[in-house]
Structures are given as structure tokens and as C-alpha cells.
Design goal:
This protein is α/β, with parallel strands linked by helices. The chain has 2 domains: about 220 residues, Nucleotidyltransferase, domain 5, CATH 3.30.420; about 55 residues, no CATH class. The chain is about 50% helix and about 15% strand. It has 11 helices and 8 strands. Strands 5-4-1-2-3-8 form a 6-stranded mixed beta sheet. A two-stranded antiparallel sheet has the order 6-7. A hairpin with a 2-residue loop joins strand 6 and strand 7. Helix 4 packs antiparallel against helix 5, helix 6 runs parallel beside helix 10 and helix 9 packs across helix 10. The structure holds zinc ion. Zinc ion binds next to helix 11. The site of zinc ion has 6 residues, from helix 11.
């Protein structure tokens, strides 16, 4: 049996504040789960985030206060936390007087990054890089992704929404992989989708999966996939955080040509006869990116 963890990067709304929407499915066999979990936990402990979420986009931001603190790198982790919090409290008090959007946004930024302020920027980059290298080394894992270029996407030529199209693609590709994996292991293999919980998405995706079970996706019936997606709290589930890292790396490659993380996680893309079949850049016509090249 295979588990497939689903997460996204960017927003499915048009235009939204990103040019791409990326939906990822990251699959491992159930008998590899303990090993994978142990690998992640070892890296988390090294960086002092044992029971914290790996939220890649927040971890890789530059934290302005850190650059203001003299010799920040030389301080102990406890001192760093103390100094950053001191700066942040002062800043919030200052913004509170004027109130408004900037205060709310700053407060949110502080909250989302508070688990990582004991690490320097280089250490945070090192953490994500180590995780990406770990993913690359997992030859038992497979990565599926639908990457939609919202600028070139024509909603009038499509029969469903961006988010629906993405889920349909991931489901179809996971089903094909299950079919091949069953042949390879010479036993019928089932697959289960596991999703980051989000109330609006949960309802839609559950309904959509029920239709896929009844009628198949646009391309294929899905006899190997069971159940509607299980919804979990991503802050408590390491493997969903790994999907988040993959989705982030792919989107940053497509939008900013940042390839260091992408090249590592892309190694796990499902391939058949050396052609990448697990990841698609859509519409992608005339595009020369690494995904489109490998998809040909
Ligand atoms: Zn492309």
C-alpha cells in the first residue's frame, strides 16, 4: 500500500498574488513510513525544531531584526530568541499606535516565524537543503505535481477550476503509478490520499473524489485508490510538511528560476522510460523549463 501526501504552493485564484499554482502529491510505501519519519526527526532535532512545523516559505524568509542584532551568529540559541523577541516587542508597540494593516501583517509574520528565530538565515537555508537532500535520497518515494501557469491559463477553455483540475491530475497520475507499482511488486497495491486540513478544500475535494470513484477522472478509472482523502493537521504531520517543501521548491523554480532545491526534489518525480510522467507544467506550450523538457 502507498500513502500520498498532498499539499499546495501559491493560490488557485486568478490572478492571486502568485503566477503559478502548484499541487503536489508525495508518495511513499507504508512500510517505509517509519524510516522516513525517523530521517525527518533526526534533522529537526539537529536544528532544534523537534516538535515544530517545517513551513518552508516562512523558514526561508529574511528576518529583518536578525540583521540588526550585533554579532547575531555568535550568540547562543537562547540569546538569539531573547534578542529577536526584544526587537519584535518594541516594533509591535510602535506599530500598535498607528494600528491598521501593517500592525496586523507584522504580528502575523512574527507569529509564523517565531519557531525559527533561534536559527540564522544560513542555518535555516541549511535545514531546508538537508531536507531536500534527504528527499532526493529516498529512492522509494515518488513525486507528482500539477503546476499551473495562471497567466497563460484560459478559464473559458477548461471544464473545471484550477484547483479541481490539479487534484484530478494528481489522482490520475497516482493511479497510474499504483498500477505500475502493482505489476512491479506482483501484488495488487492500494493507495490513500492524505491532505492538509482546510475546511473549504476538505468539502470540495471529498465531493470530487466521490465522483472520481463513481465515474473515474476525465482520463481514467481509479480502482487502486481507496477512500476520500484523509485530512490531517499539517503542523503535526511531518510528511505533509515534506509535500509543502516540494511544492514550494517547484513554484520558486518556475517563478524565480531558483533551482537548487528544485533539482533535488525533481529527482523523485515519477518517470517512465526516462520521461517524467509525474509532473506537468500547464499549459506549458513552447516552454523550455526543466519540467517541460523532461516531459517530452
Ligand atoms: Zn515549462
Amino acid at each position: 500500500m502507498l500513502l500520498c501526501y498532498i499539499d499546495e504552493s501559491g493560490t488557485p485564484e486568478i490572478p492571486g498574488n502568485t503566477s503559478h499554482y502548484v499541487l503536489v502529491g508525495f508518495s511513499i510505501p507504508v512500510n517505509k513510513w517509519k524510516e522516513a519519519e525517523q530521517n525527518i526527526q533526526t534533522i529537526k532535532m539537529k536544528y532544534g525544531i523537534n516538535d515544530k512545523e517545517i513551513h518552508t516559505a516562512w523558514i526561508l524568509r529574511k528576518y529583518f531584526e536578525q540583521s540588526k542584532i550585533h554579532n547575531f551568529e555568535l550568540l547562543s540559541r537562547e540569546q538569539r530568541v531573547y534578542e529577536v523577541n526584544k526587537h519584535r516587542k518594541t516594533e509591535l508597540l510602535k506599530l500598535q499606535k498607528t494600528g491598521g494593516k501593517q500592525y496586523t501583517q507584522t504580528k502575523k509574520n512574527y507569529k509564523e516565524t517565531s519557531d525559527y528565530i533561534h536559527l540564522t538565515y544560513d542555518e535555516r537555508k541549511g535545514l531546508i537543503l538537508e531536507l531536500a537532500q534527504m528527499i532526493e535520497s529516498w529512492d522509494f518515494a515518488r513525486l507528482f505535481a500539477e503546476c499551473i501557469d495562471k497567466v497563460s491559463y484560459d478559464p473559458f477553455r477548461s471544464y473545471n477550476t484550477i484547483a479541481e483540475q490539479a487534484l484530478e491530475q494528481i489522482t490520475t497520475r497516482f493511479e497510474y503509478y499504483l498500477l505500475n507499482y502493482s505489476k512491479y511488486t506482483q501484488s495488487y497495491q492500494y493507495g490513500l490520499l492524505i491532505h492538509d486540513n482546510n475546511e473549504t478544500v476538505a468539502k470540495k475535494h471529498t465531493a470530487l473524489m466521490k465522483t472520481f470513484h463513481e465515474k473515474g477522472t476525465f482520463w481514467k478509472n481509479i480502482p487502486h485508490i481507496i477512500e476520500t482523502p484523509l485530512f490531517v493537521n499539517s503542523s503535526l504531520t511531518n510528511m505533509v510538511q515534506i509535500s509543502d517543501l516540494c511544492a514550494y521548491s517547484i513554484r520558486r523554480y518556475l517563478e524565480n528560476k531558483e533551482s537548487e532545491l528544485f533539482d533535488l526534489v525533481f529527482m523523485r518525480a515519477d518517470r517512465k522510460n526516462n520521461k517524467v510522467v509525474g509532473i506537468r507544467h500547464f499549459p506549458g506550450s513552447g516552454c523550455n523549463c526543466k519540467i517541460c523538457q523532461a516531459h517530452k
